[in-house]
Structure formats: structure tokens, C-alpha cells
Amino acid sequence: MTPAIRCLLVALIGSTSIACVDPLVPPPDRAVGSLPARVPSPDDNPTTAEKVTLGRLLFWDPILSGDRDVACATCHHPDFAYADGRALSVGVGGTGLGPARVASTESPHGTTRNAMSVLDTAWNGVNVRGESPGPAEAPMFWDNRTLSLEAQALGPIRNLDEMRGTSFDDTQIVPEISRRLSEIPEYVALFEAAFGSRDVTEHAIVRAIAAFERTLVARDSSFDRYMLGDESAMSPAQKRGLFEFVARGCTRCHSGPMFSDFRLHTIPAGKARHGRGSHTPGGVMRTASLRNVTRTAPYFQDGSHATLDDVFTFYAHVDRSADPDLAGIDAPMPIDFGARSDLEAFFTAISDAAYDTTVPDRLPSGLRPGGAIP
Fold it and tell me: Which pTM was predicted?
């Protein structure tokens, strides 16, 4: 290992035992690190086994959609690292799974955003020091418009194209879902076990789903083990890729344990440059987490870049005047083949397949887990 790389890694790990003045070492707020050992949960929704059991079933049950044909798991499926492998998701009325999913010809309901993975979202907002805004303030969606996994769970249920459909308006759908679940004795018993009440409320539904989502973690990557002291966990190419990642300024935005600063940036990528479907102006979007990046293509908020190679090419030619952090990148571009290869090796090091891939054998509703999937 070269002195510069060793110096870099000491800074990333956060050691104060060695002074380091190498110019390639990022300031502390732009360093990266392993995921915290503890999964946070809000004070008013501590994670319990009973909530997780209920939340898992609700996550997979299409009874939560207006026409009982699409579930949370339809667009956040373990086969695609809890995303869906599509540029833009297909919601109600669609059939199939992942890239093979197709919209209804009679009443198509395509979304305007790429489905973000829900893996590790329990740590949304965490910085390199392990500090977070707290689970009740964790930013969600591409535009940070919602805070907390509890609030996030409600968004797709109320969305016309994702889960609600045309049979109900956004004020009717949640009472309808509560009514449906209340009529299933097995679900009523599960809600009572989880919350001590047989009442099936909106509050209880989203708390159960959020509790389950907090169990969807992938924190045993090669990178995490390396940062915790296992020198053999990463290959030489992966270590070189880590050095390239920092040296080229990627940590200006992709910092912290989640490889995201969770701030909004103007990234003129594909349709995103026009702000298509955006709740924020001009294509402004949150820095995407790079956790499991090799398993969550395509990339950007509109899925406009199919491969990592496409992303490298994009950043080699991006208009750096679009955002202050883009303007601040002064590393050599374009990225040559060797550097790309090392960066891709590093990205495999921050991708971890050891997450929960369990699919329920059955649902209390009697519906098919995941919805209309052939």
C-alpha cells in the first residue's frame, strides 16, 4: 500500500493517532465509513418481532392497493436488491416483475421516478461520524419531501399510479384498506399482538411496515469488514478503487456510511434535467446512496443511465456549472479504463448480497404475495 493510500485510509477510519496532510484526504465531513452497528428506530415505534412479522406480510400483500393487484414488494423486490431493475416503475394494472413488468394497455399507470432500494434506509441521513437526524427525521424519496420510514410507507399507497389506482381517491384509500384488513381475523390478531389493540388504523399500518423495512439491512459488505479492521476483506483493485473514489472528488456528495450526503443537487442527467415528475425544481435530486450500487441499475431519478459505465461517461462530460459540488471536482476526467475497472471493483465491495430475501408462503388475505406476478 502506498503512503498516500495508507494516509487516506487512516483518515477514512477516523483515527487521530497519525497526522495526515495528504491533499487527497477528504475533510471529515466528506469521508466514508462502515454502517453503524445499531439500527435506529423512533421512540414511538420501537422495533419488535411482532411488528416485523406483521409489517412483512403487509409489505407483500396487494390488499394495500386499490385494485388488490400491486404490493410494496412489487417495486421493491429482493430479486433486485429491493428496487425493481426498471428505469421507471409500473404500478397498478401492470403485470410481471422487474424489467419484465409491463403496464396495462387499457389503463397504463407508469410512474415518473426510478424506484430507490429500501435496503439500509433505516440509516438515511447518517453522517460519517454515525450521527443522524433521528429516525423520525430521516429523509425519504428522491426529493427529500418526506421524513421517516413511517411517512414514506403511506406515499405509494395514496399515489394514483403506484398503488391507489382510480377506484378510490387519496382520502378514501387508507380507510378502505383499514376496513379490508379489519375484516380478516388473522390480521386483526396480528395487529393486536403488535400494538396491543385490535383497531386497524393508518398509524398502525405504517408503523408495522416501517418496522419491517428497518430489518432490511446489508451491512456485511467487503468494505464494511475492511473498515472494521479486516485488511484482507478488500482486494488490491477494490482498495485502488476506494482511493480513486476519494481522489476524484466523489465524496463531495457520496459521503458517510451510506455514500450520500442526503442533500439536494442539480444533476443535469437525462430526463432529470427537465425535472420530470419532480417535486423540486430544475431536476434537483438527492444524492443517491451507493450502497448495493452494482445491484440497483439503472441509475438517476429517471433511470436514464443503464450501466455504471454510462454513469462514468456522464460525469466525464457533465456541465460542472450546474451545481457547486460538481464545480468543485478537480480530479482528472475522463476516467481511463484502468481507473474505471478499479472503481467498479470498489463498487462491488460496497454491495452486499447478505440481506433478507424471504418471500411469505401465504398471506392472510389469500392474495398472491407481490401482486399480479406471473
Answer: 0.90
CATH number for 3-37+219-349 (one of 3.20.10.10, 1.10.760.10, 1.20.1250.20, 1.10.150.910): it is 1.10.760.10
- Cell numbers given for 188: 386483526
Tens-digit pLDDT profile for the chain (374 aa)?
Answer: 443 443 444 444 443 222 333 445 566 667 899 999 899 999 999 999 999 999 999 999 999 999 999 999 999 999 999 999 999 999 999 999 999 999 988 888 889 899 999 999 999 999 877 777 889 999 999 999 999 999 999 999 999 999 999 999 999 999 999 999 999 999 999 999 999 999 999 999 999 999 999 999 999 999 999 999 999 999 999 999 999 999 888 998 999 999 999 999 988 776 544 333 344 444 688 999 999 999 999 999 999 999 999 999 888 888 888 888 887 675 666 678 889 999 999 999 999 989 999 999 999 999 999 987 66
- Distance CA(15)–CA(324), nearest Å, equals 29
For 50, the enclosing helix (H) or strand (E) is helix 49-60
Number of Cβ atoms within 10 Å of the Cβ of 309: 12
The Cβ-side half-sphere exposure at 170, using a 13 Å CA radius, reads 9
CA distance 279 to 85: 23
- What is the location of CATH 1.10.760.10 in the chain? 3-37+219-349, 49-213
Gap between the Cα atoms of 102 and 289, Å rounded: 27
SS3 state at 264: strand
Residue 177 near residue 157, CB atoms below 8 Å: yes
CB 291 within 8 Å of CB 259: yes
Instruction: Look at the domain 49-213 and name its fold.
Output: Cytochrome Bc1 Complex; Chain D, domain 2 (1.10.760)
